[in-house]
Write a structure and sequence with these properties.
Blueprint: E1 76-77, E2 82-83, H1 166-186, H2 188-210, H3 219-236, H4 238-256, H5 264-289, H6 295-320, E3 324-326, E4 330-334, H7 335-357, H8 361-389, H9 405-425
Antiparallel strand pairs: 1-2, 3-4
Helix pairs in contact: 1-2, 2-3, 2-5, 3-4, 3-5, 4-5, 5-6, 5-9, 6-7, 6-8, 6-9, 7-8, 8-9
Length: about 425
């Protein structure tokens, strides 16, 4: 018999065609091989013990369709035992798939109300009032009272252009003025006590502020030395004030030795700066008030010149201020404000010194200009110190002003200038 053509038969080609033995390699045509590779019919290929195992039926409970015969389901995925879902039931061709045939048809449908996030409002790109935290009903925000017809709602007090709470600043300024003037006119030793207390508070604020730079000046010898310097200036004059400064610096150095050598130079430098800046300059107030005949008038002329300088500078700066005077140190100070300070102090001092000491007006104007320039320089000097330390105010003792040193900064520079000028213009009698 001739060799059959393995590729020329009428059977379809592909993977659905049953396996067939290859052609015999030997030339004997009358000999037929036996065994599993012998020629058999399509039915015998799956009948013997060597037959290929038939895949198990999967999917539905009905009889599985043989994927190897001609009527097999070409759309069945034998890897997962499920038919392709294209809208038709492969068990009955032509019949659409109904909801009852789906295994999950017995589960209830999911609604939007059943979702756990349905209670949250939708998220928008722009923030709206629905994103604000909801407070329990019947409760108002802490710190605010409920508005009604009898009690209308009040807004928060807006700061002024100068950055201060103006009503609080005016009230505190009037209180400080009364605290100084009342003992000055009625009991002069009480004025000395007020000066000593102010110097002690200023030393505490400065020592507290310089700690931000890592320096730790000893507070006890500084305060004790400051009070000593005020007393020496009152009773013994300028030479005793300088001696008090020397004693304060030496006492601070000895006190600091007990803390060891670490940071000694830094702490001693800060202590010396505080001793010169606060009690030594403040001691000139005691020197000005020391003359028994006109000491209180000298102090009054100095305070009035400083107040006029601050008030004139504030009014002119808020009204006309456009050109910054020192933007890197104090951005709110302007040249227009400086001109207002000098003008107000010069005009007021000219009238005041003429009335108090019978001094020519031009000498009084010169006195006012010098005191105003000194006050502005003192304010800028403390602003530079605060900038270097990274603080806005020395403390928060005075509402609307900050700390006490924020009010003493201009006075501390103005008092020595006023003392020297008045010592020249109005010599001390006796």
């Amino acid at each position: 018999m001739s060799h059959p053509d393995p590729y020329g038969g009428p059977e379809p080609r592909g993977w659905d065609r049953p396996e067939r033995p290859p052609a015999l390699p030997w030339p004997e045509r009358d000999v037929e091989p036996t065994g599993p590779w012998s020629r058999q019919s399509g039915a015998d290929l799956y009948a013997g013990p060597q037959a290929r195992p038939r895949p198990p039926a999967r999917g539905y409970d009905e009889a599985a369709v043989d994927p190897y015969d001609g009527t097999g389901d070409p759309y069945r995925d034998d890897r997962y035992g499920a038919a392709r879902d294209d809208g038709y039931d492969r068990r009955a061709p032509g019949r659409p798939v109904r909801d009852d045939d789906v295994p999950t048809s017995s589960l209830p449908p999911v609604r939007d109300d059943d979702l756990p996030t349905s209670q949250f409002p939708p998220v928008r790109d722009e923030p709206g009032p629905e994103h604000e935290p909801q407070r329990p009903p019947g409760r108002r925000q802490r710190g605010r009272r409920r508005a009604s017809a009898d009690r209308p709602a009040t807004g928060q007090q807006a700061p002024s252009r100068a950055g201060r709470n103006l009503p609080a600043a005016i009230g505190v300024g009037l209180g400080l003025g009364a605290l100084i003037l009342v003992p000055l006119f009625f009991y002069l030793p009480a004025f000395l006590a007020v000066v000593a207390a102010a110097i002690g508070v200023g030393i505490w604020e400065m020592a507290r502020a310089v700690r931000r730079s890592g320096a730790h000046p000893p507070l006890v010898p500084l305060i004790a030395g400051g009070v000593l310097m005020i007393g020496l200036a009152w009773y013994a004059g300028p030479d005793a004030l300088s001696l008090g400064l020397l004693v304060t610096v030496l006492g601070t150095m000895i006190w600091r030795l007990g803390d060891g050598p670490g940071g000694f130079q830094r702490d001693l430098t800060a202590a010396t700066l505080i001793a010169v800046y606060v009690p030594f300059l403040g001691g000139f107030a005691a020197l000005s008030a020391a003359p028994p005949d006109d000491g209180l008038l000298r102090v009054l002329a100095t305070l009035v010149a400083v107040v006029l300088s601050d008030t004139g500078g504030y009014a002119a700066g808020v009204t006309f201020g456009k050109h910054p005077m020192a933007p890197s140190i104090s951005p709110k100070k302007s040249w227009e404000g400086f001109a207002g300070s000098v003008s107000a102090a010069a005009l007021g001092s000219a009238l005041l010194l003429w009335a108090l000491f019978d001094l020519a007006p031009w000498w009084g104007a010169l006195f006012g200009i010098a005191v105003s320039v000194s006050a502005v320089l003192g304010d800028l000097g403390e602003s530079m110190i605060k900038r270097d330390l990274g603080v806005k105010d020395m403390s928060n003792l005075l509402p609307g002003h900050g700390g006490l040193m924020d009010r003493l900064d201009s006075i501390l520079f103005a008092v020595p200038t006023a003392y020297l000028l008045l010592a020249v213009f109005v010599p001390v009698v006796g």
